[in-house]
Design brief:
The chain has helices at residues 14-30, 48-57, 74-90, 106-121, 128-132, 146-160, 180-189, 206-221, 237-252, 325-332, 371-383, 402-411, 424-431, 463-468, 482-491, 521-528, and strands at residues 2-8, 36-40, 62-67, 95-98, 135-140, 167-172, 194-199, 226-229, 309-314, 336-339, 356-359, 387-392, 416-419, 445-449, 472-476, 499-504, 512-517, 534-538. With 551 residues, it is an alpha/beta fold. It has a five-stranded parallel β-sheet, with helices on both faces. α8 (206-221) links the parallel β7 and β8 (226-229). α4 packs antiparallel against α9, α7 (180-189) packs parallel to α8 and α11 (371-383) packs across α12. It is elongated and about 90 Å long.
Length: 551
């Protein structure tokens, strides 16, 4: 006799756990799929090991393991099969057939339609006229698996077809773009006046709650719009019907997984590191096999589970929206964030409440966390099984000590990845309207650290050679040394009238740009109180500025 184990992800939401349990009970009451248990791979009780153990105790050594997930991302492709492999080690003779994820099924589309219409009309159905004036924002979890994200887009199109809505746009609440606010803004620009935000989620949880909060925030900023949020799919007959259908497929051997665009099998642009990656099960806090308790979260990046990982992320020149998409995704999935003073501070407000934030600021002439202490923090948190993001300003490898941190992690055996960022050396001039190169004007750019003045015994800069260059020079960390640098450049041949632009607080509301000649920049910086963070760009390109000075 074959038992059915329904496998959920898990959530910190008590309502979500109750809805999962109710669905398992609904399937059990029907009596047409044999013996049934349900369990979670993390976060919630009961753990999967309890559910499997209960079925084995009742004589079931043949199981169908059905992943109760919408899209086949890391949970369905790796975490659940790895957890079931562990159960086979615990229960000799245990075999199982793995059901496919729920996928873009018409039964789920019908359930979504009912949730949307209930939000639209406050009743079971809305009339055709109401639908014709309604846009739908279908919001999925978001994943680091491109195939899973593409499936949400497919569901959006299938939901639109034949149902009479003005349009359906897909988006994501974590790990992928476009975000909830971005989708709502797109619909507003398309002329929408009534929008139903439809969470593409099975059960309640932290992320569906975040969708509600972000939708309410957008609606408050745009009172001309009618923005409503539908309920999640939840425990219902349609979902139970689909579980029964997937169970029958597994018993009949008709398992039609999509491997054509699976990032674990096929090299997808931007995801080459996933091909062939070994899969490891989650460590559930109620499963005695785990040496580390997994720290709670509602979404994850498919990184190593047994010893954690570190991502050294360039946050860009300062504004929150100039971080890369990949950097933001890793930040959203982090358990620990070790942050620099010049990293985009506004992004910290969007972290989950349980994320530990470590202040690694190096304040000029002020408090400073030693680099050795930073390295140790990265390694120790990763070894504790946490996903650590080292959030830095600009680019980690442009005067950011990023490679020192990578070397420390590598030496400790901690998996580490680097996400490039937009360096202020390029961004600050651009935000001030200055191109660092321009056809016929400048064919080279030299980025120089000015933290040590010319003549300092530890300086590695050939200032004389730099003075003879004809291109653009960008000086970082030179607030205290700019007068000395300008004097030495002139001494070795750079023209005194060379235009210079000081850009302070680039990209922030307080940004200001101060133009001067090379022989005047030191006095001007002192007189105007230029302070860090500031970038000095010098060369003929400064004369090409299109925005003029900002003071």
């Amino acid at each position: 006799m074959t038992g059915l184990v329904i496998v959920g992800h898990g959530t910190r939401s008590a309502a979500g756990v109750d809805q999962f349990a109710a669905l398992v009970e609904r399937v059990r009451r029907r009596g047409d799929v044999g013996d049934v248990e349900g369990g979670f791979i993390e976060l919630s009780r009961p753990p999967l090991t309890d559910a499997v153990g209960a079925l084995v105790a009742r004589g079931h050594l043949e199981l169908v393991a059905l992943p109760l997930v919408l899209t086949a991302a890391g949970h369905g492709k790796g975490d659940i099969p790895a957890a079931m492999a562990r159960e086979q080690e615990r229960h000799p003779g245990l075999t199982y057939r793995y059901g496919r994820p729920l996928g873009p099924h018409p039964l789920l589309h019908d359930a979504l339609e009912q949730r949307i219409d209930a939000a639209l009309a406050g009743a079971a159905q809305a009339d055709t006229a109401d639908r014709a004036g309604t846009w739908v924002a279908l919001i999925g979890r978001g994943s680091t698996d491109p195939d899973a994200n593409a499936e949400v887009a497919k569901v959006a199109r299938l939901l639109w077809e034949g149902r009479g809505y003005a349009g359906v746009e897909p988006g994501f609440v974590s790990l992928a773009q476009p975000s909830v606010p971005a989708v709502l803004e797109r619909l507003r620009r398309l002329g929408a006046r009534r929008i139903v935000v439809a969470p593409y989620f099975l059960f309640a949880g932290v992320l569906p709650d975040r969708i509600v909060a972000q939708s309410a925030e957008f609606a408050a900023a745009h009172p001309e719009l009618d923005v409503r949020v539908a309920e999640v799919i939840g425990d219902c007959d349609a979902l139970a019907d689909l579980v029964r259908e997937r169970h029958a497929e597994a018993l009949g051997g008709d398992i039609r997984m999509n491997c054509d665009t699976c990032a674990y099998r096929v090299l997808m642009p931007g995801f080459a590191d996933k091909v062939g990656r070994p899969q490891r099960p989650h460590d559930h806090p109620d499963d005695p096999v785990g040496h580390h308790h997994h720290h709670g979260h509602d979404h994850h990046h498919d990184d190593h589970r047994d010893h954690g990982s570190v991502a050294v992320v360039g946050g860009g020149p300062g504004p929150d929206d100039l971080i890369t998409v990949r950097g933001k995704a890793l930040l959203d999935a982090a358990d620990v964030v070790v942050v620099d003073r010049l990293a985009p501070q506004g992004l910290l407000a969007g972290l989950r409440p349980d994320v530990l934030v470590v202040d690694a600021a190096k304040v000029p002439r002020g408090p400073s966390m030693a680099q050795e202490a930073i390295n140790e923090a990265l390694v120790s948190h990763a070894r504790a099984g946490r996903r650590v993001v080292r959030l830095k300003g600009g680019d980690p490898y442009v005067f950011g000590r990023g490679h020192e941190e990578v070397q420390a992690c590598a030496a400790a055996g901690v998996p580490v990845t680097v996400v490039p960022g937009v360096s202020s050396a390029i961004a600050a001039p651009a935000l001030a309207g200055v191109p660092v190169t321009h056809r016929g004007v400048a064919h080279d750019v030299t980025v120089v650290s000015g933290h040590l003045p010319p003549g300092h015994p530890d300086s590695l800069v050939d200032w004389a050679a730099l003075a003879r260059a004809r291109g653009t020079v960008v000086l970082l960390m030179a607030v205290d040394t700019i007068a000395k640098i300008a004097s030495v450049l002139i001494e070795h041949g750079r023209a005194p009238e060379t235009p210079v632009l000081a850009v302070q607080d680039a990209g922030q509301p307080s940004q200001r740009s101060l133009p001067a000649r090379l022989d005047e920049i030191g006095a001007l910086a002192a007189r105007e109180g230029v302070g860090p963070p500031a970038v000095f760009v010098l060369g003929p390109v400064v004369a090409l500025t299109t925005t003029g000075p900002h003071t």
